[in-house]
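Hello again,

I reread your note about wanting to compare the complex against the isolated chains. To keep things tidy I'm splitting this into two emails, and this first one only covers the full assembly. Below are the input lines as submitted, including protein chains and any nucleic acid or small-molecule components. They are followed by the predicted structure of everything together. The single-chain runs will come separately.
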Amino acid sequence: MEMPKGVSLWEDASVRLRKNKLAMCGLVFLVVMVLLCLITPWIVPYGYEEQDLRLGASAPSAAHWLGTDIFGRDMLTRILYGGRVSLFVGFIATFVALIIGVTYGAIAGYAGGKVDSIMMRLVDIMYALPFMIFIVLLMVVFGRNLVLLFMAIGAVEWLTMARIVRGQVQNLKQQEFVEAAVSIGQSPFAIIWKHLIPNALGPVIVYTTLTIPNVMLLEAFLSFLGLGIQPPSSSWGLLISYGVESMEEYPWLLIFPGVALALTLFALNFLGDGLRDALDPKASRD
Amino acid sequence: MSKLLEVNDLSVHFHTRNGVVRAVDGVSFSVEAGKTTAIIGESGSGKSVACYSLLGLIPKPPGKIESGSAQFEGQDLLQLSENELRKIRGKGISIIFQDPMTSLNPFLKVGTQLIEPLQLHFGMSKQEAWERATEVLEEVGIQDAAKRMHSWPFEFSGGMRQRVVIAMALITEPQIIIADEPTTALDVTVQAQILKLLKDLQEKRDIGVVFISHDLSVVADIADEIVVMQQGKFVEKGSRDDIFQNAQHPYTKKLLEAVPTSQKAEVDNSKAELVQVEGLTTQFSGNGEIVKAVNDVSFAIQRNEILGLVGESGSGKSTLGRSILRLLRPHAGSVKFDDTEMTQLEGKALKDMRRRMQMIFQDPYASLNPRMTVYDTLAEPLLLHSIVDRKNLDQEIFKLMDSVGLARESILRYPHEFSGGQRQRIAIGRAIATKPEFIVADEPVSALDVTIQSQILDLLLELVSEFDLTMLFISHDLGVVRYLADRILVMHQGELVESGTTNQVMNFPQQSYTQRLLQAIPGKSLAVNS
Amino acid sequence: MWRFLTWRLLQAIPVILAVITITFFLVRAAPGGPFSTEKAVHPQVQAALEAQYRLDQPMIQQYLSYLGDLVQGDLGPSFNFPGRSVNELIFSGLPITAELGLYAMLVAVLIGGLAGVFAALKPNSLQDYVPMSLSMIGICMPSFLLGPLLVLIFGIWLDWLPISGWGNSPGDKVLPSITLGAMYAGYIARLSRSGMLEVLSADYLRTARAKGLPERVVIAKHALRGGLLPVITFLGPAFAGLLSGSFVVETVFQIPGLGRFYIQAAFNRDYTMILGTTTFLAALIVFFNLLSDVIAAWLNPRLRYQFKKAS
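Full-complex prediction:
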């Protein structure tokens, strides 16, 4: 017997998301940007370190669409290679924050009581710590180490994730459908898996999307100050800081990497906002 | 008698992206001085929109007044500009809103909010207005009014807040008060007090009242004229006696029938006891205080009976129900189910007992997992307790859906695609899936519209006899309990104050609290009539 | 209220202690730090260090004596500027950073708050989209990009405003303040918009309108207080953000403030300076978090009442 299919909340949300033009633009931009950065080594005609000193810093031209830097290196190539690092840091550090935050928040929320209040008090205290200053300090003391950078950024960003997940779980735990699952004799594991996680997922997805731009901003900030990614590696933050040094004579060296970073952050934020509106139409935007 | 307000053929439409919603469609009513016109309808019937639109209090756009007139003091309210309307709002016509917990500004002192209309409409000085407001606050029965003027809204209880809201509506001595479900959010004894206060003040000042309500029994006590609405449309209008004694329209008849007025017939009560509760105490600790939500309660539930558990909010009746089912862990006492001690059970033994006892929850919007289809929801208990194997699962689910009156086609739908009543049917299906012997139903109809209520109540009665169920039926609504309970327990502040057969408790209450509770039941005039 | 204040102050102590401890031992763990004896250091500094930290004693003893000095407000000698103490250096930079932070905060609160309230009054109209798009630009445009771009446009191409310095030529405070404040203006605009939207749909606003109050009174007297509460709570974290943002802005505009000192100290590995500044900045941030919490509690009568009752 063929039965009419219902519309799940996920399908509902995806319909709403697809109607949101800004969010869809953001999504398309991101997909294109990520793909371009991934396949960069095979599509760009210039090497990342390939210098053409005769050329020097040249304005955009047919051969070099986004111009060249003072060593005659192709800017488009450098921006795409820089994007690889920036996006990589963004995704990995967010992933670290996601894993720590969700686990921590879910445990605190489900356990409740004393365990919860101790765990959340700890988060409160960590919230009050001036992490930015610590990260600068870490980078100074231990040198510019990419792994350390992930750990440091992840350590900052998981706090909010933990709070969100904990709030969700705590809220859901009091919902009557969870009580109903207990009353039919369902095991705690099945309750978490079938009833809590699918319902807590929405805000986690939204916040994850909004964490990525935060992380990328943090990385760019450190790289700009010379405390993040070190040459010969490159990232958008680092390219911007080079661009600033010679912006009077060669403004394209600042503007193009700046635009790349700003547009990516835009796209991520729009997508995040769109996801929030789609997954929870009642929640107001902030 | 002159009419204060005369509304004719009012239509209000909302122009949304998904088309035009005819919220109010050709409705007429009038109000006389000193009289009450009640507008009756279920949720979404447009009764509030009709009244708010008179004062320009609906959002425009998307709302638009399409046609009609509303004569008040020689002018048509619907033709007035925003500035002209503002001079009438709060001065000629005041509104009392439904939820006293949200209708006062939490960031301003009660006094500050009370004097606003006086300063605005009469240009009183702050001191004058303050003195006048203090008098009115006293008049609505707030003690120590001068001091309470300096309090914040949250320092008042729900009933006291509603008194403040009434004072605010009365303070400018308006000709008309629109009362939008002013007692729906309140306990029944508080409701009776507020209704009496409104009536007294109305008589004293000769005010015309438009009383919006979904509850026919409330309206029966206070209305002079009744207007019935359904989905924005005018259904029927008449004097109170007309409507209650010879309603013409089928919808009105359906509404009247849905009010549970009859009492269940007495049955012999010499059956075996299924549940025995002895000295049960459940407490919560918070803010360093220990609250005994259930305090040393003892009683028994007989096989195949429906035991009604009655109490006002905060009386501990839900906590008691959950403690029996071990959804909460009691702190002392014992619960024996079919001679098995429940309070100490763990693991497999507890799971097996859970199969035999189930719960139906109050809010059908919260009691179903929004990410699970009807199929998933009903399959979960069936598979968990191996009631059927996978091969026969579909058939068993269809059978369940048939018994609770759900269309088989909706098996793959999600909860948000159903109405409140249908959702409650799904929840009931889940509860009876394991073929339990005992069900705790916690206010299973209080979140539903009145016509839906009676359908669900009848469904429950049917299932009880079909599956030989024993039921603990928890409710704040004595009318509903009287309709289906064999015996009644009354709870007050965590303790059991009275118990007996339905007839004993309803007609010969022994305790003063029960007597007060019974007196507060609205619609006594209705019961006499029927 | 006093009880609330004391309670919050008590909560701040472990935080500050944690900051000091982590910083102290991090710096001690640094290879080639000030405390490693094999490193060539100016004799004057070496002498001061030994005197202050009793380098011959166990580490825990050194930590305690550092705490002891700290309680008396002494952050020790600078490592790179012989003869000058960290205290002197901090207090030479502090007034400038404080002024910059104040202006940036004004930019953020005034522009952001106005934009948010304005947008919330007519949601999903041009009056909403324009300020909200601008706020998104503010959020996505990091200060290290916005600053140079503003310099390029207004300082170099248009030549309207000076491109560096602080208080040396008229108008040189404009660009740094805007650069630092822009991102927080963006956040505050979004916060105040959503806060106002929530309040605007609240039942008590309908009550206010039903009294016949004119719309501007409804907004100003009944809506703003509740709607802007989230902004107040955000000011604490915003302050912390402004401080770290000032590292960049002071570097871009060559402003001799605290942030620039800190970055210089970081590059010169002036460990005592880092240690002292970190402690100082952390204390400042904790203090401002506390302040914004207290203000938020004060504006919320319910919280105020609870603490009054409890004490």
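For quick reference: Chain C touches chain B at residues 202-204, 206-214, 221-222, 225-226, 299-302, 305 (CB under 8 Å).

B.
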